[in-house]
Design brief:
about 260 residues, alpha+beta, Uridine Diphospho-n-acetylenolpyruvylglucosamine Reductase, domain 2, five-stranded antiparallel β-sheet, four-stranded antiparallel β-sheet, 14 strands, about 30% helix, about 25% strand, globular, binds flavin-adenine dinucleotide
């Protein structure tokens, strides 16, 4: 197996002519090989690319380098202040060892319906900056994630930056797992709300995150009804579809009773 660690985007684009697999934290990738998936011929490790890690305020946005670890996000003051639900998601993510390797870009590109940062990124209207040798493009996260493990990534493209428009919305994240820590979410959801707007984004109840906006004028029962019609959960090793529906209704009723009309 060949292993490359480019230090510039030009170097990356030269190597990306070949058949390759991208590696960052490896916390999704390495377990796949341990489970018996064939090893790739070429691995390109993105960790040393410039501006690939770190969190900056640029204009009216917070920009998170795709290679920023979950622990790095958890320890950032901008995130705690402006994107509380994302911060909450990082506190419930894996273990300290996993959080120090796992990256936000890896969580997005892995495109698991249960990925814990995803509902918060949908609720905060995240955009993604992608790049390949032909240039850059920015797309909303909803247009990037296409299904379990499927994204709109083009040939030779990488995810460079996650862009979050600054917001004064309140927000919260909730995760239901089969145990308190190191659990894949059975359900997770994020809400973002102020007097004018309420958005709910829910994970692990459909092939991609389900996002509902414009809910602020509704009563709780109307919101719960809309949610129930929008989701399409399945039975899997963690829970039945029926359990997911009921647990989601109960958890949402509890959380929403703090913020909307009963
Ligand atoms: C023990 C354990 C516990 C876990 N707990 C949680 C949890 O609580 N919540 C949760 O959501 N997940 C959890 N995970 C899953 C995993 O840690 C996350 O999905 C993590 O964010 C993946 O990031 P990574 O940098 O390790 O990705 P990698 O494994 O390096 O990559 C994942 C995939 O994305 C691609 N990729 C990565 N970055 C880029 C990029 N910038 N551009 C293009 N492609 C890219 C890779 O090619 C690969 O296909 C856990 C995993 C383990 C092993």
């Amino acid at each position: 197996m060949k292993y490359f660690r480019p230090k510039t985007l030009d170097e990356l684009h030269l190597i990306s002519e070949q058949n390759f697999t991208l590696l960052v934290g490896g916390t999704d990738l390495i377990p796949r090989y341990e489970r018996g998936q064939k090893l790739p011929e070429t691995i390109i490790d993105l960790k040393q690319l410039p501006n690939f890690t770190g969190i900056k305020k640029i204009g009216n946005n917070i920009e998170i380098g795709a290679g920023t670890t979950i622990e790095g996000i958890k320890n950032n003051n901008f995130i705690i202040k402006h994107f509380y639900a994302l911060w909450q998601a990082t506190t419930e993510f894996g273990s300290v060892q996993i959080r120090n390797r796992a990256t936000i870009g890896g969580n997005i590109c892995n495109a698991s319906p249960a990925g814990d940062t995803l509902p918060t990124l949908y609720a905060f209207n995240a955009k993604l900056l992608l790049c390949n040798k032909n240039g850059n493009r920015t797309i909303p996260i909803e247009k990037f994630i296409a299904g379990p493990g499927k994204t709109a990534m083009k040939d030779g493209e990488i995810l460079l930056t996650v862009i979050l428009p600054l917001t004064s919305s309140n927000s919260m994240f909730y995760k239901l797992g089969l145990r308190e820590a190191m659990a894949i979410s059975v359900i997770n959801f994020a809400t973002a709300y102020d007097e004018n707007e309420l958005t709910i984004a829910i994970g692990a109840v459909a092939p991609t995150i389900i996002k509902l906006s414009g809910l602020e004028m509704l009563y709780i029962d109307q919101i719960l009804d809309k949610v129930d019609r929008a989701i399409s959960p399945i039975d899997d090793i963690r829970a039945t579809a029926n359990y997911r529906r009921k647990a989601l209704q109960n958890m949402l009723r509890f959380e929403l009773s703090k913020i909307v009309k009963i």
